[in-house]
Amino acid sequence: MFFPISGAHISPIYLVIVGFVIGILGGFFGVGGSFIAGPALRLVGLDWNFAVGTDLAHIVGKSVVAAKRHRALGNVDLRLGLVMAVGTIAGAEAGAQLIQVLKRAGNVNLVVSIVSIVVYLSISAFMLWESRKTLKSQRGRSSNAKVKGLTAKKDKTAFGHVSRAIQRLKIWPMIALPTSGVKEISLWVILLVAFVGGVFSGFLGGGAGYIRMPSMVYVLGIPTHLAVGTDLFEIIISASYGTLSHAVKGNVDILIALVMHTGAAIGAQIGAISTQYFAGPKIRLAFVPLPLIGAAIVIYTLVSGHKL
Amino acid sequence: MTKETARTLRDFSIELAIYGLLVVAYFFLVLHLLGDWLYQLESQHRYVYAGVAILLIIGQAVLLESVTTFLIRMIRGRSE
Predict the structure, then answer these.
(1) Which residues of chain B neighbour A243 with C-beta distances below 8 Å?
(2) Which of chain B's residues have a Cβ under 8 Å away from the Cβ of A252?
């Protein structure tokens, strides 16, 4: 199939399959999946600028489907999502500016690659340690049994004492997040977490769900299911902003995004529904390979010199 | 394989087949016709194109979510 905007010939079946796989991951983990979508689009010859912009447009559509499903399951905290969107957009702009500074210094590829490898490996290692520790401590309790529905959303982390200490910080203004079960938390803490996620999004590309979802669980103390659903809701806003920005610069082939999204729409529903059948620590444990895939792709591009 | 798993898989296969047919029809009827118009828009009115692009992807998301939800309800309703 010929896509006139980007001038690319790509099989629609390939796009639908890629969309489907990323849809499942996005619905289940609350990530955009750009670490797979970007290289997958590059693999069939799409220019890097179109791969980034088109992927963002596809992420918007996929997140709408998955967030709607999560909302029906009671997994979206709208207040938290709206506040986080503000921080993310500001952070994404800061990250993009940082890239411009590095571009002028002439070592952008090496710095971004090394930072992303360190970040990806750290997230994976930390989540592996934490989720295994939590699962071990819960062995023999109800969460280790077959969980479904509300029981699965009762969440504990081995890092819970840190998030409780952060919630106790009294830095005005404080807001309540009743949907997430947080009595009070400083608005600045939420904005800071979102801002850091946004910086990584602008700096490393994609939606940075691999940073934001774990941060919401470990720093803000949001239950995993709520973090997944709220992250998806927040991605709709921040990725829409990114799509508009890239479309104006001529980096979005919306026809490719629409074709990819037909697969992602059904994948995202499957992923979102599947979260009901897993407890928080198990979702976090299953999340561990995702940043590793991202790290493997970056290491490959560094070693081979091919930019996927 | 339990009876329930087998039924879920069968429902899912039917849903996927119907959804596949709808998507193929959608490719030819909608995306094919939109292609040239969007190409012109992208090359001549970039800001309008950006707005249309966002509206199209969100509109498609809402539409497909409704279609898949309807299919799931219809197929599960019949098999119960």
Answers:
(1) 50, 53-54, 57
(2) 50, 53
Q: 3-state DSSP call for residue A3?
A: strand
SS3 of A8, please? strand
Angle, CA of B9, B14 and B16, to the nearest 5°: 90
Tally the domains of chain A: 1
Instruction: Tell if the CB–CB gap between B61 and A61 is shorter than 8 Å.
Output: yes
How high is the mean pLDDT in each 10-residue block of chain A (308 residues)?
A: 89 91 86 80 83 88 88 90 92 84 78 84 88 79 47 67 87 90 92 91 76 89 90 88 88 92 87 83 87 83 71
Helices (H) and strands (E) in chain B, counts: 3, 0
What is the pTM (predicted TM-score) of this model?
A: 0.83
Nearest residue in A to B57, CA atom: A61
Residue A92 parent element (H or E): helix A78-105
Look at B42 and A5 and tell me if their CB atoms are within 8 Å: yes
Structural domain span for residue A31: 2-304
